[in-house]
Amino acid sequence: xxxxxxxxxxxxxxxxxxxxxxxxxxxxxxxxxxxxxxxxxxxxxxxxxxxxxxxxxxxxxxxxxxxxxxxxxxxxxxxxxxxxxxxxxxxxxxxxxxxxxxxxxxxxxxxxxxxxxxxxxxxxxxxxxxxxxxxxxxxxxxxxxxxxxxxxxxxxxxxxxxxxxxxxxxxxxxxxxxxxxxxxxxxxxxxxxxxxxxxxxxxxxxxxxxxxxxxxxxxxxxxxxxxxxxxxxxxxxxxxxxxxxxxx
Length: 248
Known about the structure:
Layout: E1 3-8, H1 13-24, E2 28-34, E3 48-51, H2 55-67, E4 71-74, H3 81-94, E5 98-100, H4 106-118, E6 124-131, H5 141-153, E7 172-174, E8 177-183, E9 189-197, E10 200-208, H6 211-228, E11 232-234
Parallel strand pairs: 1-2, 1-3, 3-4, 4-5, 5-11, 6-8
Antiparallel strand pairs: 6-9, 7-8, 9-10
């Protein structure tokens, strides 16, 4: 039986990549493609919703899918733990599967896991992320997820030191970590997690140089997983075992 997929945001950069991957997957078919102005009743009849829309639209797409009992895979950026908490009670009550993937890149997921693994050993940390100038949201969903995972990994040690964060140039604090966002042409995605301690520092860098090639393997894993999932799952690292799995 073919899984019918409703793809929201299918005309965007990520949406087009997801569409191409689904077209190659056995047992999956894109039933319809929705834009930001589409009526969400168009989700009716789908077996799986894949959301690659915008932060402003995404939360309504997730709510609509949950209310219809349709499992959903969310690739839209901007889903922090705080935002997820807005729909968590609805998901828990309905028992509908929701999978949030801030970044479909395997290398990005590994970079986040490495940063979380290193977090307990360094008292200072900052994140610098760069994306194309057309990216709507900042900080990126990947940077938010990385900061949240790093902070969670330091529960026993306490929060990172973050001096002078009252100054705007120190970046936006996410989970107690200053995050700096660059938006410029010619960039796909780059993230640096910089951890510092007495006499040393550790920088974990991930670069995306070809988004289609980088995201496709993660999408191939996430789509079948999301179809069968009945829980709330956050992050590609909780779909595959990277060997450095942080807490969910």
